[in-house]
Write a structure and sequence with these properties.
10 strands; 2-enoyl-CoA Hydratase, Chain A, domain 1; 2 domains; 49% helix
């Protein structure tokens, strides 16, 4: 198999996923793979430098505060691309988070967020994991400087979202991309024949134009994932789904002041501010009271509580 076709298959795999990511970032990923498919190589020294930088971006502990990095492109599991790009694996991040929650020496958890989003796989589960841990200890998402799409889906599950003055939050939406390579391959004298069983088995393949029913299926999946995204944000941020759809940017990011005003974030501050506040006795007491209130609110939201009349007015 030629290098061009090998990387084209990678592009096809990327296009086969659903993405909650800043569109420009997805375009950059596809452009990078296209360049690779044309035989352009990256100096090993550059790769080594990126990997070395990634090695320093692990979970850290400052006294009794665990700092977990949610950086760059998000994927479900660790792979070559995530390792080289300094991206975040939902699986690995989830393990770090579980350890921090279970560790009695950790009094608070900070999510250090700077990400354009990524693949939707594993994101809803990680958001649910963080949301379910509310009430155990303070969980604060610190945005410096981008919290977009899948990253916002995850970070919104924290007790509080803090954003730096220059930070951006939002990009609520879901993407899918299809590459039709049929004309290009024809020009190159390459004919591909797909032998299939199952009416929809080869839907959305790169060797044929996208059929209307295949496009409708992909759109339905995008819409379904978008609805889940909206519902989770509404739950996590304590607002209605309508508010998320109308006030959370409609796919665009917001600067810090607008994000706070529209309830995407709670306040403007730096991570240093958050760490300092967490160390103040009064702040610790207030956060403890907040945890109790959140725990009570979650109990009231359960179906069992609602059945017993505990859902409130």
């Amino acid at each position: 198999m030629s290098k061009a076709l090998k990387y084209q298959n990678v592009i096809t795999a990327v296009c086969g996923e659903l993405w909650a990511i800043v569109p420009a970032k997805l375009e950059a990923i596809l452009d990078f793979l296209s360049v690779k498919s044309e035989g352009v190589t990256i100096e090993q020294a550059v790769v080594d430098e990126i990997v070395a930088a990634r090695a320093t971006k692990h979970g850290d502990v400052t006294g009794d505060i665990a700092v977990l990095p949610l950086l760059n492109t998000i994927s479900n599991r660790v792979g070559l691309c995530s390792s080289c790009s300094g991206g975040t694996s939902c699986e690995s991040f989830g393990r770090q988070f579980d350890q921090a929650v279970a560790d009695p020496s950790i009094g608070a958890i900070i999510l250090d967020v700077d990400s354009p989003g990524g693949s939707v796989y594993g994101v809803a589960e990680l958001s649910e994991k963080i949301y379910s841990a509310r009430g155990t200890k303070p969980i604060i998402a610190c945005v410096n400087s981008l919290c977009a799409s899948a990253a916002f889906w995850i970070a919104s599950a924290a007790d509080e979202i803090v954003v730096t003055k220059s930070g951006d939050i939002g990009s609520v939406g879901v993407l899918a991309v299809h590459h039709d390579m049929s004309e290009r391959l024809t020009k190159e004298g390459i004919t591909t024949t797909i032998i299939r069983a199952g009416q929809y088995k080869a839907d959305g393949n790169q060797y044929e134009p996208l059929a209307d029913d295949a496009k409708a299926y992909i759109q339905a999946r995008v819409d379904e994932t978008y609805t889940q995204f909206i519902d989770d944000l509404a739950r996590n941020r304590g607002v209605s789904a309508r508010t998320v759809e109308t006030r959370f940017g409609k796919g665009r990011v917001m600067g810090a002041p607008a994000a706070v005003q529209n309830k995407l974030a709670d306040r403007i501050a730096t991570m240093a501010d958050v760490v300092r506040d967490l160390r103040k006795p009064a702040r610790k007491k207030r956060m403890a009271n907040n945890q109790n209130a959140l725990s009570l609110a979650k109990v009231r939201q359960t179906p069992q509580a609602a059945a017993c009349g505990g859902g409130g007015s």
